[in-house]
Amino acid sequence: MAQLRSWNASRTTFKFAYYCRSAGSFCSGSRNGFLGGVTEYYYNNVNGNGVSCLKRSLHTSCTGANASKSAVLHWQNSLLSDVRCLHSAAQDKQAQVSVVDRTQHVQSKQEGVKPQRDPLDVSFNDPIAAFKSKTTWELTRAYLVYMICTSEKIVEHNMTLMKWTNKMLGKRLFTALMKATFYGHFVAGEDQIKIIPTLERLRSFGVKPILDYSVEEDITQEEAEKREVESSVSSAGDNEKDAGALPQYHVDKSFADRRYKVSSARTYFYLNEATCERNMEIFIKCLEAVSDDDAKDPRPAPDGATFGTGITAIKLTALGRPQLLLQLSEVIMRTRKYMEALVGGQGNVLTHHKTIKDLEKYYASVGDNKDVQQFLQNVTSDKEGILHLFPWSGIVDENSQLSETFRVPDPLTGQMRRLISQISPKEEEMFRNMIRRLNTIVKTAAELDVRIMVDAEQTYFQPAITRITLEMMRKYNKNKAIVFNTYQCYLRETFREVVTDLEQASRQGFYFGAKLVRGAYMDQERARAQALGYADPVNPNYEATTEMYHKTLAECLRRIKVLKDCGQDARKIGIMVASHNEDTVRFAIENMKSIGISPEDKVICFGQLLGMCDYITFPLGQAGYSAYKYIPYGPVEEVLPYLSRRAQENKGVLKKIKKEKRLLLSEIRRRLFRGQLFYTPKGNYVPI
Questions:
Q1: What range does the record give for the signal peptide (predicted)?
Q2: Fewer CB in a 10 Å sphere around the end CB: N or C, the chain?
């Protein structure tokens, strides 16, 4: 098949050249430049004299009288068909290279060959180290994309412009244009097969993937608000008077469109249970793409496409009705207030270090009450004190009723009162479905040996997301960190939350995984808190957020060091430093060195988005640090919302763009003056 496609590619280039000649002056100007770029690309990817002939023909074909409209259309359709044929041949060649690369990787592991390593410039000012994984065309494209991102007018109306361009050019030409610009820079490909060359290139330069199928619904604000309001209010109503309700954990129409003031995070809006099932299947396909464990794929992949190092990102709001997360979050916060009133002090139940006997004293006046005794039997504790008031293990194992679980006794009367607002039997079933979906995903991840990053979301969802994620850690992180939770350091409570969760992991004996980010919802959170009248959960400024990030990271590193010094498995704590801030990355590296944590300990990794901060990611990977790229993929037209957000995000980090543009231009000039314009990236690095 590969030989047949190679022959077809050679034959096609002559045919391609013929159509270029027949188009006459239609090939002039910018179109000639476009064709030259296409030809140059395939010249570097497909062997055969046909491409050389095509390249020569472009310089001689674009003369003569104007072509007729039918000739132009004929040329256009044939061009697109032939480009696809050439692209198919190029993919065959890339797949063959992938097989060789995989085999060499396995052989090097078996033979104990030391992988290539480069010294790390912690100033991140080395353009060669930053871009040795890129062709000159890719550097030029990146520079063009960043130039566009500095235009406020274009960025502000980018979604409208993309839709208008799609209508004007038609689907095929629009797709070609996007692949030559934004899509090609920020997205790896359409599906699990077409992203493989990108994954292989990353791996050969020491970088691993976090896969995310980035197809998003493009719905109006009105539709988003309608869905959110309908899916965030219980159909059961609430007949009990509840003086303890917290406004933060109830939907407000003014903020029902959760995309408001958010440019760097995807938003899922609940439609129905079938959509949640489909989202589960998509996440599982991402896991399978990472593991590359498809029996139908004949390529040798003994360690998977990412050689056992890949990650998939998921969001809990994609798997269930948001009302359920709101109600659970409110339960958790009301439980904290209940304990504060009962025993004094602030913070999570776990931090009070109270025992079952202490609780029995508080309920002494009603100690014979059967409901109180049943409540005490369900409390989770260890020798250091109470861990949870409620049996969360039963909840994540899908065998508990929410409405019956979240009840606490009144210390004076012994009467049981519920902390959760009323929930219908149908909503109980929806919650069990959400937990079932999450269990299915995490179980699949454990079987495929792929890690799961559960993304952070808004503060009114986050207590529930963190609680459920920690229970998944307890269930699945018994021998290694499979499940990771995400902590947003722009929040005032992040350090306390991380320390509390580290304590739970230590006391319950499971591996703790955390991704530290600055956060995506800051502006929205501030506006919502002010409008609804609750305390602003956000740090006062950027410097305070940086301090929170570094303080939290330093505490994690300290605990890793303690584990290492005590002869325990240091990997019981795994941290991803997910940051585009080079000062934070430098802080992590310097602290690792100062306390004796090496990259080979495999406890700290770094992550950035595909197409952003390459000058940080690739030098880290090439120096032997565990470095990741967040890899979005999906069809062009269906990832437009993702591309729109990337443009918006780059507009907000002009300082970083300025540096990346400077390094890009420096490397392009260097290649030009050194005669390396046709440089072909080839790495011999092995990810840690």
A1: none
A2: N
Q: What is the dihedral of CA 76, 79, 85, 87, to 10 degrees?
A: -100
pTM: 0.81
Pairwise CA distance, residues 143 & 587, whole Å? 28
Q: Within this chain, do residues 517 and 654 fall inside the same structural domain, yes or no?
A: yes
Paired tokens of 73: 């259309």
Give the model confidence (pLDDT) of 515-551 as tens digits: 999 998 898 999 999 999 999 999 999 999 999 999 9
Q: Which range, of 91-105, 340-354, 469-483, averages the lowest pLDDT?
A: 91-105
Distance, CA of 502 to CA of 32 (rounded, Å): 60
Instruction: Please give the pLDDT value at position 55.
Output: 40
DSSP string, 462-502: HHHHHHHHHHHHHHH-SSS--EEEEEETTBTTHHHHHHHHH
**CA–CA gap between residue 264 and residue 641 (Å, rounded):** 11
- Beta strands at 385-388 and 380-382: parallel, antiparallel or unpaired: antiparallel
**Is there a contact between 301 and 310 (Cβ–Cβ < 8 Å)?**
no
CA 649 – CA 564 distance, rounded (Å): 38
Q: CB of 397 within 8 A of CB of 431? A: no
DSSP at 209: E
Tell whether 523 and 638 lie within a shared domain.
yes
pLDDT of residue 513: 97
Alpha-carbon gap, residue 122 to 127, rounded angstroms: 13
Inside any domain, residue 126: no
User: Cα–Cα distances in Å, from 574 out to 511, 559, 593?
Assistant: 8, 11, 17
Contact 98, 299 (CB under 8 A): yes
What are the strands, taking DSSP E only, across 4-129? none
Q: Give residue 660's domain range.
A: 179-318+436-674
Adjacent-strand bridge partners of 210 = 311, 630
Cα–Cα–Cα angle for 482, 295, 446, rounded to 5 degrees: 10
- In-domain check, residue 220: yes
Helix/strand/coil for 483: strand
DSSP state, residue 653: T
Q: Which residues, 6+ apart, have CB-to-CB distance to 528 below 8 Å?
A: 252, 255
Give the integer Cα–Cα distance in Å for 348 and 616: 37
Tokens of 428: 């109980």
Q: Which residues contact 633 (CB under 8 A, 6 or more apart)?
A: 187, 188, 189, 190, 191, 192, 194, 195, 211, 212, 213, 214, 639
Residues facing 491 on adjacent strands? 538
Are 365 and 248 found together in one domain?
no
In eight-state DSSP terms, residue 56 is H
Q: What is the DSSP code (8-state) at residue 488?
A: E
Both 408 and 478 in a single domain?
no
DSSP 611: T
Residue 566 Cα distances to 387, 396, 512, 560, 600, angstroms: 25, 33, 17, 10, 18
Q: What is the CATH number of the domain that holds 310?
A: 3.20.20.220
Q: Where are the alpha helices (DSSP H) in 112-187?
A: 127-131, 136-149, 152-156, 158-169, 171-179, 182-186
C-alpha gyration radius of the chain? 28
Strand ranges for 463-511 from DSSP E: 483-488
- Calculate ∠ Cα 505-510-514, nearest 5°: 65
pLDDT in tens, 401-458: 787 788 889 888 888 888 888 788 898 999 999 999 999 999 999 999 999 999 999 9
Q: Is the pLDDT score of 134 beyond 90?
A: yes
Give percent helix, percent strand, percent coil of the chain, each to the nearest 5.
60, 10, 30
User: How many Cα atoms are found within 13 Å in the side-chain-facing hemisphere of 631?
Assistant: 31
- What integer pLDDT is reported at residue 28 of this predicted model? 38
The pLDDT of residue 308: 54
Which tokens sit at 353? 């270090």
Tell me: do 237 and 105 sit in the same domain.
Answer: no
Residue 131 lies in a domain: no
